[in-house]
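Lecture notes, unit on binding sites. The following record was shown on slide 14. It pairs a sequence with uridine-diphosphate-N-acetylglucosamine.
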Amino acid sequence: MVVVAILAAGRGTRMKSHIPKVLHSLGGRSLIERVVESVKPLSPSRQMVIVGYQAVEVQAAMQSILNLEFVEQTVQLGTGHAIQQLLPHLEGYTGDLLVLSGDVPLLRTESLRQLLQTHQEHQRAATILTAHVTNPKGYGRVFCNGENIVQQIVEDKDCTPEQKQNCRINAGIYCFRWQELEKILPHLQTNNAQKEYYLTDAVSQMESVMAVDLEDDQEIMGINDRLQLATAYEILQKRIKEKWMAAGVTLIDPASITIDDTVQLQPDVIIEPQTHLRGSTVIETGCRIGPGSLIENSQLGENVTVLYSVVTDSNVQAGTRIGPYANLRSHVEVGVGCRVGNFVELKNTQLGDRSNVAHLSYLGDMTTGNYVNIGAGTITANYDGVKKHRTIIGDRTKTGSNSVLVAPLTLGNDVYVAAGSTVTENVSDDCLVIARARQVVKPGWRKKSPEC
Ligand code: UD1
Ligand code: CA
């Protein structure tokens, strides 16, 4: 049986931010969300998050995650003090406690599983994750005997110059036999450089603590400042891109592309340079996205192309071509085999199958049938200054260039709108509507006018 505790009470002073450190976003999800995700497959019996600095905000941000218990550390006196807050909650508990840091977001579930396994096999009082790194600055240094039994952990700020040479670092991830830890916790002291209660001191004081090295030292990276946040993002991106390339996705100039780990791609998708895929986006096989595109929380069917365009909270069906320079702003549904072209903005609009809106249009709050052609420069006047109104267009209807469709408005099937019309009244099936001033030509007008 294992209880998980996640340390998330610290302010994260080095971030120089008014947002608590653990809520900073790393590729679309907060640091702490990532940590919670990594323990989920271990099915812990309880998950306790220790909150303190901006506790209300941290709790609110994690509201949607089930089965979390929040334990408040009202003053932040160190990692040891944070774990002391668990004492009343875990009275009589006889299992293991897995301690994670809310600011160590790249750890894989597999590594945690290994830590638990080693801990349970060797029956130690505690087992901790360590790594050998080239730049150990800022991390606690772990000193072991030849059998990987921990003698001492010394924080960077408390290290002598010789101790600083030790490159074996503490990941801040521990598995404790709770009954052993709860005996030591009340006796921690603050005689150190930061005048804090260190959890690492509890480890140093325990008999028979084992250190387990991580193969991939990047996993234990802690985020304390913006540079580390950026470095973690690079590591994450590398992992994600390698995964998709192995799964049959082509990335052209991967360094210029970013992909959130919540995105789903099918084989034979091609992602061109300077393209960014975010949120719950799903892209089906045969799509070519980019160069220069942003796709966010959207679904693209097979063989869709998107060129220099933005697609947000939208759904585009198979074979449709988007761009260049289109903006599918939100709640847009585009049917099969459509074309949404240059300088077209769509918002809250459903475009039927095999329909085109190829140039210079704004369509807001609109629904069209199939085989519709929206002429260049067609605009929906959907807002009367107070409310938004809908425009509904039937199958095969065509709007001429520079039409203004003043909503609320319904045009039936097979309607033709003459170029330059401002249409304010509904039009039934199979009509031509002309709503503009008739052209007047006055020959010789200049010569008759006295001013000219
Ligand atoms: C800690 C370890 C260090 C290890 C490093 C790995 C200690 C004393 N040191 O150092 O050995 O190499 O992590 O990343 O444990 N927190 C609280 N309450 C507090 C203080 C901190 O909840 O009173 C939380 C923070 O929000 C953070 C975590 O504990 O999520 C770690 O705290 P931090 O101050 O970042 O510790 P480090 O100096 O990085
Ligand atoms: Ca840290």
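Take-home: The pocket of uridine-diphosphate-N-acetylglucosamine (ligand 1) is lined by residues 7-10, 50, 52, 73, 76-79, 81-82, 101-104, 139-140, 153, 155, 169-172, 198-200, 222, 224 (CB under 6 Å).
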